[in-house]
Design brief:
Elements: E1 4-7, H1 17-28, H2 40-50, E2 58-62, H3 68-73, E3 75-80, H4 82-104, H5 110-128, H6 148-175, H7 180-204, E4 215-217, H8 219-234, H9 237-256, E5 259-261
Parallel strand pairs: 1-3, 4-5
Antiparallel strand pairs: 2-3
Helix pairs in contact: 1-4, 2-4, 4-6, 5-7, 6-7, 6-8, 7-9
Length: 264
């Protein structure tokens, strides 16, 4: 696969308004979350367009403290149009997972697959303040190709992109101040993305006959533990418990695989 562009952790947007222009542009181009239910030909074309510097402006030259994780999965840290890089990265990661699942098949259960695919719809609903009308169910393919490296890379890249989405949503909770409905909306999005991130890791490990790859603790995960008390104080108890359960679910994935610590 070609290099996968992600924002440096410090550049992840923190407010819904900072994503609205990019999201609106992608909707106008037919490159929003609905592309994930399009035909394979349309999806391949969409990926080419989303990865083009003519559509999303980006600037290279950003590094994390410990680049081992990025080097392992072909990640390049960039700046530029933060909203465009952020949203296009999420969509590209999903398109790669869908293509790999179509070619290789997957043993991920149907409910988990729906959980994985709900997150991008929830993200665009939140950013554009769209009414939640559900999602188009996309079933994974049943191919039989043997693509273990591509499977692991696609799943790990999606995990990284979703964890940035979690950081964006949790930042919204922290910054909501006295806006209770906004804080609830943000923590609901964070919960959906955490659940999807756990499935992405499971997808990355869904390679018969191969030992699980190490799971890296990343900057976004550490950020969540730093602000968890602020999240608890900002949202109703039931919403927080859902968020905490999703975070524990991700920790369960960590404990099921070798855990390595990466700087961010």
């Amino acid at each position: 696969m070609e290099p996968f562009r992600l924002l440096h952790p410090d550049l992840v947007p923190q407010r819904r308004e900072s994503l609205q222009h990019a999201a609106s542009m992608l909707v106008q181009m037919g490159l929003d979350d609905t592309v994930l239910s399009a035909s394979p030909v349309h999806q391949r074309l969409a990926r080419v367009v989303l990865a083009s510097s003519g559509v999303i402006e980006w600037t290279p030259g950003y590094w994390v403290q410990d680049p081992e994780l990025d080097e392992r999965f072909g990640v390049v840290r960039v700046g530029g149009d933060r909203g465009g890089v952020f949203l296009s990265g999420v969509l590209i990661a999903y398109l790669d997972v869908l293509e790999n699942a179509a070619r290789m098949g997957t043993s991920i259960p149907e409910d988990s697959w729906r959980t994985l695919l709900w997150a991008p719809t929830a993200l665009f609903d939140h950013v554009l303040r769209r009414p939640q009308v559900g999602m188009t169910v996309v079933t994974p393919g049943c191919g039989t190709e043997n693509l273990p490296f591509e499977r692991t890379q696609a799943g790990q890249r999606l995990y990284l992109a979703l964890m940035q989405a979690v950081r964006f949503a949790v930042s919204g909770v922290v910054r909501a101040q006295d806006d209770g409905p906004l804080a609830e909306d943000c923590v609901t999005l964070a919960t959906a993305c955490l659940r999807a991130a756990a499935v992405a890791l499971a997808f990355a490990a869904d390679v018969p006959g191969h030992a699980p790859q190490p799971v890296f603790e990343i900057a976004e995960h550490r950020y969540l533990w730093q602000v968890i008390s602020e999240v608890r104080a900002a949202v109703p108890r039931a919403r927080f418990e859902q968020f905490a359960a999703a975070l524990r679910g991700l920790n369960d994935v960590y404990t099921a695989c070798p855990l390595l610590v990466s700087g961010g």
